Amino acid sequence: MAKQEIPSDALTSAQLAESLGVSVNKIKKVIQELNIQPDFKRGVCGYYAPETVKKIKSKL
What we know:
The structure is a single chain. By secondary structure, the protein is mostly helical. It is built from three helices and two strands; from the N terminus they run ααββα. The radius of gyration is 11 Å and the shape is globular.
């Protein structure tokens, strides 16, 4: 299976929390409430595309 290429503008929940100045738990809670799945995965790490990040931001 080929490695999935993750775009440079995709963010993990921790990176998103840091960029917005909120806790990772707050981001994870919003992701769970909206039932959002990661757009990309590398191992256990989920990455979210800019469109998904906008949805998360709007819920905060």
